[in-house]
Amino acid sequence: MMFSSLQTLFSVSLLSSIILIVSAPSWFLAWMGLELNLLSFIPLISSKNNQIASETSLKYFLIQALGSSMILLSASFLPLQANFALLILLLALMLKLGAAPFHFWFPQIMEGLSWPTALMLMTIQKISPMILISYLTKYDQTNYMLIQLAMLSSIIGGMSGINQTLLRKILAFSSINHMGWMLIALTMSETCWLYYFTLYCLTSISVALLFNQQKLSHISQLLNFKSQQASINLLNFLTLLSLGGLPPFIGFLPKWITIQELCSNNMLLPLMILLMSTLLTLYFYLRLTFSFYTLAAPKTFHTLNFNYQNSLTTFAIFINLMGLPLSLLVT
Questions:
Q1: Same domain, 185 and 328
Q2: pTM: predicted TM-score of the whole model, two decimal places
Q3: Is 325 a member of any domain?
Q4: Segments forming the whole domain that contains residue 92
Protein backbone atom coordinates (compact mmCIF):
# COMPACT_ATOMS: atom_id res chain seq x y z
CA MET A 1 0.00 0.00 0.00
CA MET A 2 2.91 2.29 0.82
CA PHE A 3 4.49 1.54 -2.52
CA SER A 4 1.27 2.45 -4.30
CA SER A 5 1.04 5.68 -2.30
CA LEU A 6 4.60 6.61 -3.25
CA GLN A 7 3.84 5.97 -6.90
CA THR A 8 0.81 8.24 -6.64
CA LEU A 9 2.88 10.92 -4.93
CA PHE A 10 5.58 10.93 -7.60
CA SER A 11 2.98 10.83 -10.38
CA VAL A 12 1.29 13.93 -8.95
CA SER A 13 4.69 15.58 -8.64
CA LEU A 14 5.41 14.69 -12.27
CA LEU A 15 2.18 16.27 -13.49
CA SER A 16 2.83 19.32 -11.29
CA SER A 17 6.25 19.79 -12.90
CA ILE A 18 4.67 19.76 -16.36
CA ILE A 19 2.11 22.36 -15.29
CA LEU A 20 4.94 24.48 -13.85
CA ILE A 21 6.88 24.31 -17.12
CA VAL A 22 3.87 25.12 -19.30
CA SER A 23 2.90 28.11 -17.16
CA ALA A 24 6.43 29.31 -16.31
CA PRO A 25 6.91 33.05 -16.97
CA SER A 26 10.71 32.71 -17.13
CA TRP A 27 13.30 30.22 -18.31
CA PHE A 28 14.60 29.83 -14.74
CA LEU A 29 11.24 28.54 -13.52
CA ALA A 30 11.05 26.31 -16.59
CA TRP A 31 14.47 24.88 -15.71
CA MET A 32 13.27 24.25 -12.15
CA GLY A 33 10.26 22.45 -13.58
CA LEU A 34 12.53 20.23 -15.68
CA GLU A 35 14.53 19.30 -12.58
CA LEU A 36 11.37 18.52 -10.63
CA ASN A 37 10.21 16.43 -13.56
CA LEU A 38 13.48 14.49 -13.52
CA LEU A 39 13.35 13.86 -9.77
CA SER A 40 9.74 12.71 -10.04
CA PHE A 41 10.21 10.31 -12.94
CA ILE A 42 13.32 8.50 -11.68
CA PRO A 43 11.50 6.84 -8.72
CA LEU A 44 8.83 5.63 -11.14
CA ILE A 45 11.55 4.02 -13.29
CA SER A 46 13.34 2.34 -10.37
CA SER A 47 10.18 1.13 -8.61
CA LYS A 48 10.93 -2.52 -9.50
CA ASN A 49 14.01 -2.61 -7.24
CA ASN A 50 16.10 -4.76 -9.59
CA GLN A 51 19.41 -4.27 -11.38
CA ILE A 52 17.89 -3.43 -14.77
CA ALA A 53 15.66 -0.74 -13.27
CA SER A 54 18.59 0.73 -11.34
CA GLU A 55 20.79 0.88 -14.45
CA THR A 56 17.98 2.41 -16.47
CA SER A 57 17.29 5.09 -13.88
CA LEU A 58 21.01 5.93 -13.67
CA LYS A 59 21.29 6.27 -17.47
CA TYR A 60 18.21 8.46 -17.57
CA PHE A 61 19.54 10.66 -14.75
CA LEU A 62 22.92 11.18 -16.43
CA ILE A 63 21.38 12.08 -19.80
CA GLN A 64 18.86 14.49 -18.32
CA ALA A 65 21.50 16.03 -16.04
CA LEU A 66 23.67 16.65 -19.12
CA GLY A 67 20.73 18.36 -20.81
CA SER A 68 20.13 20.55 -17.76
CA SER A 69 23.81 21.49 -17.67
CA MET A 70 23.64 22.53 -21.32
CA ILE A 71 20.65 24.76 -20.53
CA LEU A 72 22.66 26.52 -17.82
CA LEU A 73 25.60 26.78 -20.24
CA SER A 74 23.38 28.48 -22.81
CA ALA A 75 22.35 31.02 -20.18
CA SER A 76 26.00 31.92 -19.56
CA PHE A 77 26.57 32.53 -23.29
CA LEU A 78 23.42 34.62 -23.73
CA PRO A 79 24.98 38.07 -22.96
CA LEU A 80 27.93 37.41 -25.30
CA GLN A 81 26.64 35.30 -28.20
CA ALA A 82 22.84 35.22 -28.30
CA ASN A 83 22.61 33.08 -31.44
CA PHE A 84 25.09 30.54 -30.08
CA ALA A 85 23.21 30.44 -26.78
CA LEU A 86 19.93 29.73 -28.58
CA LEU A 87 21.60 26.93 -30.53
CA ILE A 88 22.93 25.29 -27.35
CA LEU A 89 19.52 25.66 -25.73
CA LEU A 90 17.82 23.97 -28.69
CA LEU A 91 20.32 21.10 -28.65
CA ALA A 92 19.83 20.68 -24.89
CA LEU A 93 16.07 20.38 -25.31
CA MET A 94 16.52 17.94 -28.20
CA LEU A 95 18.74 15.84 -25.93
CA LYS A 96 16.08 15.81 -23.23
CA LEU A 97 13.46 14.94 -25.82
CA GLY A 98 15.45 12.04 -27.27
CA ALA A 99 15.32 13.32 -30.84
CA ALA A 100 18.09 12.85 -33.41
CA PRO A 101 21.03 13.23 -33.31
CA PHE A 102 20.74 12.73 -29.52
CA HIS A 103 18.46 9.72 -29.78
CA PHE A 104 21.01 7.09 -28.70
CA TRP A 105 19.76 6.91 -25.11
CA PHE A 106 16.03 6.67 -25.87
CA PRO A 107 15.83 3.03 -27.14
CA GLN A 108 18.17 1.86 -24.37
CA ILE A 109 16.02 3.45 -21.69
CA MET A 110 12.82 2.09 -23.26
CA GLU A 111 14.27 -1.43 -23.22
CA GLY A 112 14.60 -1.37 -19.43
CA LEU A 113 11.16 0.06 -18.63
CA SER A 114 7.84 -1.57 -17.90
CA TRP A 115 5.04 -0.82 -20.34
CA PRO A 116 3.34 1.83 -18.13
CA THR A 117 6.56 3.80 -17.60
CA ALA A 118 7.55 3.30 -21.25
CA LEU A 119 4.19 4.80 -22.22
CA MET A 120 4.87 7.78 -19.96
CA LEU A 121 8.29 8.28 -21.56
CA MET A 122 6.76 8.18 -25.05
CA THR A 123 3.94 10.60 -24.27
CA ILE A 124 3.88 12.66 -21.07
CA GLN A 125 7.64 13.19 -20.92
CA LYS A 126 7.62 14.80 -24.36
CA ILE A 127 5.32 17.65 -23.35
CA SER A 128 7.81 19.77 -21.40
CA PRO A 129 10.70 19.83 -23.92
CA MET A 130 8.36 20.44 -26.85
CA ILE A 131 6.59 23.31 -25.10
CA LEU A 132 9.97 24.94 -24.46
CA ILE A 133 11.09 24.26 -28.05
CA SER A 134 7.95 26.04 -29.28
CA TYR A 135 9.26 29.24 -27.65
CA LEU A 136 12.34 29.04 -29.90
CA THR A 137 10.46 28.72 -33.19
CA LYS A 138 10.03 32.50 -33.46
CA TYR A 139 13.77 32.82 -34.15
CA ASP A 140 14.75 32.11 -37.76
CA GLN A 141 18.06 30.47 -36.89
CA THR A 142 16.61 27.95 -34.42
CA ASN A 143 13.56 27.38 -36.62
CA TYR A 144 15.76 26.41 -39.57
CA MET A 145 17.88 24.14 -37.38
CA LEU A 146 14.76 22.57 -35.91
CA ILE A 147 13.49 21.63 -39.38
CA GLN A 148 16.82 19.95 -40.19
CA LEU A 149 16.80 17.99 -36.93
CA ALA A 150 13.17 17.00 -37.45
CA MET A 151 13.96 15.52 -40.86
CA LEU A 152 16.96 13.70 -39.36
CA SER A 153 14.77 12.26 -36.58
CA SER A 154 12.24 10.94 -39.05
CA ILE A 155 14.94 9.27 -41.17
CA ILE A 156 16.75 7.67 -38.22
CA GLY A 157 13.49 6.54 -36.62
CA GLY A 158 12.35 4.92 -39.85
CA MET A 159 15.62 3.20 -40.74
CA SER A 160 16.69 2.04 -37.28
CA GLY A 161 13.45 0.26 -36.43
CA ILE A 162 13.56 -2.15 -39.37
CA ASN A 163 15.94 -4.73 -37.88
CA GLN A 164 14.69 -4.55 -34.29
CA THR A 165 13.06 -7.55 -32.61
CA LEU A 166 12.22 -6.12 -29.17
CA LEU A 167 8.83 -4.42 -29.12
CA ARG A 168 9.91 -1.62 -26.79
CA LYS A 169 12.80 -0.73 -29.10
CA ILE A 170 10.48 -0.83 -32.10
CA LEU A 171 8.13 1.61 -30.38
CA ALA A 172 11.13 3.72 -29.34
CA PHE A 173 12.29 4.20 -32.93
CA SER A 174 8.68 4.70 -34.02
CA SER A 175 8.47 7.44 -31.40
CA ILE A 176 11.64 9.04 -32.78
CA ASN A 177 10.05 8.99 -36.23
CA HIS A 178 6.90 10.61 -34.84
CA MET A 179 9.08 13.22 -33.14
CA GLY A 180 10.21 14.34 -36.57
CA TRP A 181 6.60 14.88 -37.60
CA MET A 182 5.74 16.67 -34.35
CA LEU A 183 8.73 18.99 -34.55
CA ILE A 184 7.83 19.90 -38.13
CA ALA A 185 4.25 20.53 -37.01
CA LEU A 186 5.60 22.70 -34.19
CA THR A 187 7.43 24.95 -36.65
CA MET A 188 4.15 25.66 -38.47
CA SER A 189 1.67 26.13 -35.63
CA GLU A 190 1.12 25.00 -32.06
CA THR A 191 -2.41 23.92 -32.99
CA CYS A 192 -1.08 21.52 -35.61
CA TRP A 193 1.37 20.11 -33.07
CA LEU A 194 -1.40 19.73 -30.48
CA TYR A 195 -3.56 17.74 -32.91
CA TYR A 196 -0.68 15.47 -33.80
CA PHE A 197 0.48 14.96 -30.23
CA THR A 198 -3.03 14.20 -28.92
CA LEU A 199 -3.77 11.59 -31.58
CA TYR A 200 -0.27 10.13 -31.23
CA CYS A 201 -0.87 9.71 -27.49
CA LEU A 202 -4.20 7.96 -28.09
CA THR A 203 -2.62 5.51 -30.53
CA SER A 204 0.39 4.88 -28.28
CA ILE A 205 -1.89 4.26 -25.30
CA SER A 206 -3.87 1.62 -27.20
CA VAL A 207 -0.67 -0.15 -28.30
CA ALA A 208 1.01 -0.05 -24.88
CA LEU A 209 -2.12 -1.20 -23.03
CA LEU A 210 -2.57 -4.17 -25.35
CA PHE A 211 1.07 -5.21 -25.05
CA ASN A 212 1.02 -4.74 -21.29
CA GLN A 213 -2.11 -6.87 -20.92
CA GLN A 214 -0.49 -9.72 -22.87
CA LYS A 215 2.97 -9.26 -21.29
CA LEU A 216 4.58 -8.97 -24.73
CA SER A 217 8.21 -7.97 -25.19
CA HIS A 218 9.42 -9.72 -28.38
CA ILE A 219 8.23 -10.03 -31.97
CA SER A 220 8.18 -13.83 -31.68
CA GLN A 221 5.38 -13.50 -29.13
CA LEU A 222 3.31 -11.56 -31.67
CA LEU A 223 3.64 -14.44 -34.13
CA ASN A 224 2.05 -16.90 -31.74
CA PHE A 225 -0.63 -18.51 -33.88
CA LYS A 226 -2.75 -20.22 -31.28
CA SER A 227 -6.34 -20.20 -32.42
CA GLN A 228 -7.65 -18.83 -29.13
CA GLN A 229 -5.30 -15.84 -29.48
CA ALA A 230 -5.94 -15.13 -33.15
CA SER A 231 -8.35 -12.25 -32.55
CA ILE A 232 -6.08 -10.42 -30.14
CA ASN A 233 -3.09 -11.01 -32.44
CA LEU A 234 -4.95 -9.42 -35.32
CA LEU A 235 -5.83 -6.48 -33.08
CA ASN A 236 -2.15 -6.11 -32.18
CA PHE A 237 -1.22 -5.70 -35.83
CA LEU A 238 -4.08 -3.29 -36.48
CA THR A 239 -2.89 -1.02 -33.66
CA LEU A 240 0.68 -1.16 -34.98
CA LEU A 241 -0.51 -0.22 -38.46
CA SER A 242 -2.44 2.67 -36.94
CA LEU A 243 0.69 3.80 -35.09
CA GLY A 244 2.57 3.63 -38.39
CA GLY A 245 0.04 5.97 -39.98
CA LEU A 246 -1.75 3.67 -42.41
CA PRO A 247 -5.16 4.95 -43.58
CA PRO A 248 -8.00 4.64 -42.63
CA PHE A 249 -6.77 4.21 -39.05
CA ILE A 250 -6.64 7.17 -36.70
CA GLY A 251 -2.82 7.24 -36.84
CA PHE A 252 -3.08 8.57 -40.39
CA LEU A 253 -5.20 11.57 -39.38
CA PRO A 254 -2.44 13.66 -37.69
CA LYS A 255 -0.13 12.95 -40.61
CA TRP A 256 -2.83 14.08 -43.05
CA ILE A 257 -3.28 17.34 -41.13
CA THR A 258 0.48 17.92 -41.13
CA ILE A 259 0.72 17.10 -44.85
CA GLN A 260 -1.91 19.73 -45.59
CA GLU A 261 -0.02 22.31 -43.54
CA LEU A 262 3.27 21.47 -45.24
CA CYS A 263 1.70 21.79 -48.68
CA SER A 264 0.09 25.12 -47.80
CA ASN A 265 3.49 26.42 -46.61
CA ASN A 266 5.24 25.05 -49.73
CA MET A 267 7.60 22.90 -47.62
CA LEU A 268 7.90 20.12 -50.17
CA LEU A 269 11.38 18.82 -49.32
CA PRO A 270 10.58 18.15 -45.62
CA LEU A 271 7.29 16.59 -46.73
CA MET A 272 9.04 14.15 -49.09
CA ILE A 273 11.56 13.13 -46.42
CA LEU A 274 8.85 12.62 -43.79
CA LEU A 275 6.77 10.50 -46.17
CA MET A 276 9.75 8.35 -47.18
CA SER A 277 10.66 7.71 -43.54
CA THR A 278 7.06 6.81 -42.72
CA LEU A 279 7.04 4.29 -45.56
CA LEU A 280 9.99 2.57 -43.88
CA THR A 281 8.07 2.10 -40.63
CA LEU A 282 4.97 0.98 -42.50
CA TYR A 283 7.07 -1.54 -44.44
CA PHE A 284 8.14 -3.20 -41.21
CA TYR A 285 4.64 -3.29 -39.72
CA LEU A 286 3.14 -4.60 -42.97
CA ARG A 287 5.82 -7.28 -43.14
CA LEU A 288 4.79 -8.48 -39.68
CA THR A 289 1.13 -8.45 -40.69
CA PHE A 290 1.76 -10.43 -43.87
CA SER A 291 3.76 -12.96 -41.84
CA PHE A 292 0.76 -13.36 -39.56
CA TYR A 293 -1.56 -14.06 -42.50
CA THR A 294 0.77 -16.31 -44.49
CA LEU A 295 2.26 -18.38 -41.67
CA ALA A 296 -0.87 -18.93 -39.60
CA ALA A 297 -2.96 -22.03 -40.21
CA PRO A 298 -6.15 -21.40 -42.24
CA LYS A 299 -8.37 -22.67 -39.44
CA THR A 300 -7.00 -19.94 -37.22
CA PHE A 301 -9.00 -17.26 -39.01
CA HIS A 302 -12.29 -19.05 -38.35
CA THR A 303 -11.87 -18.12 -34.68
CA LEU A 304 -11.50 -14.34 -35.09
CA ASN A 305 -14.20 -13.52 -32.55
CA PHE A 306 -13.42 -10.35 -30.63
CA ASN A 307 -14.51 -10.19 -27.02
CA TYR A 308 -16.34 -6.88 -26.98
CA GLN A 309 -17.00 -7.26 -23.25
CA ASN A 310 -13.31 -6.62 -22.70
CA SER A 311 -13.14 -2.85 -22.20
CA LEU A 312 -9.49 -2.70 -23.30
CA THR A 313 -10.21 -4.50 -26.57
CA THR A 314 -13.20 -2.27 -27.24
CA PHE A 315 -11.15 0.85 -26.49
CA ALA A 316 -8.35 -0.21 -28.86
CA ILE A 317 -10.79 -1.01 -31.68
CA PHE A 318 -12.69 2.24 -31.23
CA ILE A 319 -9.58 4.43 -31.05
CA ASN A 320 -7.90 2.98 -34.11
CA LEU A 321 -10.94 2.68 -36.37
CA MET A 322 -12.47 6.08 -35.76
CA GLY A 323 -9.89 7.66 -38.05
CA LEU A 324 -12.10 7.15 -41.11
CA PRO A 325 -15.12 9.18 -39.92
CA LEU A 326 -12.84 11.85 -38.44
CA SER A 327 -10.91 12.18 -41.69
CA LEU A 328 -14.14 13.20 -43.44
CA LEU A 329 -14.27 16.26 -41.18
CA VAL A 330 -10.76 17.40 -42.18
CA THR A 331 -10.69 19.64 -45.23
A1: yes
A2: 0.91
A3: yes
A4: 8-97
